[in-house]
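Exercise 7.
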Amino acid sequence: MKTNGTNDKAYNNGVTDDTQSSKLMKLFEDELKDIYWAEKALTTAIPKMIKNATSHELSQALQSHLSETEEQVKRVEKVFELINKKATAKKCEAMNGIIKEAKEIMDDCEEGVMRDAGIIAAGQKVEHYEIASYGTLIQFAKTLNMEDVAQLLEQTLKEEKAADDKLSEIALKTVNMEAAAQPSSL
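Solution. The predicted structure, written as tokens, is:
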């Protein structure tokens, strides 16, 4: 450890002793544990979505995002390292619920474009939760003067927004149009 030049507080990767013990830092750590669990859970949930998707474009987008998600797990682990904490996951009840809902959608929708539309809807709920979580973590990191942490999290936020945009594009371009053209089986 070194000093930050403005006072004699210990300083490591932008995290001072005062920052480490602040209430906001504790909340940051709690939220980080939450998103870590969520990202790890998605590495098992996304393959199920891929298996159930019939649209080639949707399958490819999900496969690409699975690779990104695996890297995002590593990036969150790097954030834990930067704040001098062990990477620990805390069950994210929100993401757990979204994943359960995605499974229900896949079980309830008949195979084809209707299920693909449901997978996109579930995928976008995942992305929106992640976008909100990473946005919050970035603001906390900036408030805590952890710019290196904020930069890592910003990289993930950009990927989550791009994944959401890609799902919207697939939905609007093909899947939703095809699902809308199918007669209801009521």
